[in-house]
DNA sequence: GTCTATAAAAAGATAGAC
DNA sequence: GTCTATCTTTTTATAGAC
């Protein structure tokens, strides 16, 4: 593999594991085995390398999110996505970046993060709409809101799991969300509509 | 105010705003106005100061959480807590710390964070149990799980808001959680129980 | 308890030969 | 494109006078 690619890959891992502020040029050099000179040849600064690495992490995450776009029972897709096995203690490659002030305050570095979440939101809204249309979810639930709620459950689940150094809170949070969705599947509102007809 | 207290207060703010790794002794000195000598007189290291500051941030957060323990309609308390105005772009003083590797990997620094979330969980479970007992929530929902779900909605809501630099996703996430709880209030399960009697 | 001076180490790059 | 050497600044303290 060429040096440039190796640097990006290494930085992607370090951003996930340690974030931006706590990753030094030396960490990158030592883990990648790429020399000082090469590093600054390919990337003028740590920030430029971080940008490339961040784009890579975003790209790595989107295929997973696109599972929400599949076909078949939408509620089943939602439940499958929420309960998919994840390494909760490692956190989210993308969500993590929001806690790094040097990323958060830098519009260029924050942009890929914002884009990733915006795209995930689109997929969530679509599958939720499908679930409502299929009569699997109450029709008085707002898909745009609910999409943010379910995205937050995942992102927040990581926080809880890391705090306790135990993946159980993450799994609980997701399972609890599934419970709520199922409870909201039995549609009082739809029944009302039926009665009106 | 004495130097020691001023240092802790300043560090508390900096931990909230910038986290541990990205806060330097100089930042602390400049913002607090306390001299170098005084700082190392009161705290042998940055880590020791951070520990005191972290305990302070945890202590500042717990009174808010204890609002869940009040009296009156439990579901109303839950909704009030979820929709209370918050500065979403600033994130959570305590949850934020889970993303700092130097905190996450240090059992002593992580302990106050774990304790705070454990305590919040207790309050959440209690109010959820009350809501179920009062017939305001389906009795087939597991309070322990749901507690983690709702805590995650808040923590994850901050992540979404910071990513978009907009508090709307946070408010959406919370409002969506309230919607789901209300949908789950109309208890199919309780109705079944009624029928059995 | 506070102040100023000093300093070892790491972060974040630059220079220039090959 | 890679390598080694150099360099500035910041981090994280320590020392010792007042």
From TrEMBL, chains A, B:
Keywords: DNA-binding, Transcription, Transcription regulation. InterPro entries: Homeodomain-like_sf, HTH_TetR, Tet_transcr_reg_TetR-rel_C_sf, TetR_C. Pfam families: TetR_C_13, TetR_N. One of its GO terms (molecular function) is DNA binding. Residues 24-43 bind DNA. It comes from the Bacteria. The keyword Protein biosynthesis does not apply. The keyword Ribonucleoprotein does not apply. Residues 1-61 form the HTH tetR-type domain. PANTHER family: HTH-TYPE TRANSCRIPTIONAL REGULATOR LMRA, TRANSCRIPTIONAL REGULATORY PROTEIN. This is TetR/AcrR family transcriptional regulator. It comes from Phytoactinopolyspora alkaliphila.
């Amino acid at each position: 593999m060429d040096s440039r690619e190796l640097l990006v890959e290494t930085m992607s891992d370090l951003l996930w594991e340690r974030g931006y502020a706590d990753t030094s040029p030396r960490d990158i050099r030592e883990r990648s085995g790429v020399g000082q000179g090469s590093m600054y040849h390919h990337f003028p600064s740590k920030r430029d390398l971080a940008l490339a690495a961040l784009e890579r992490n975003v790209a790595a995450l989107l295929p997973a999110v696109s599972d929400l776009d599949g076909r078949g029972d939408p509620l089943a897709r939602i439940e499958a996505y929420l309960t998919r096995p994840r390494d909760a203690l490692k956190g989210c490659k993308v969500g993590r970046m929001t806690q790094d002030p040097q990323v958060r305050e830098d519009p260029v570095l924050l942009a890929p993060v914002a884009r990733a979440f915006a795209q995930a939101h689109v997929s969530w809204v679509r599958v939720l709409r499908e679930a409502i249309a299929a009569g699997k979810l109450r029709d008085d639930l707002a898909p745009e809101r609910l999409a943010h709620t379910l995205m937050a459950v995942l992102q927040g689940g990581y926080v809880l799991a890391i705090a306790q150094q135990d993946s159980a809170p993450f799994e609980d949070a997701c399972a609890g969300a599934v419970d709520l969705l199922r409870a909201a599947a039995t549609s009082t509102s739809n029944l009302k509509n039926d009665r009106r007809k």
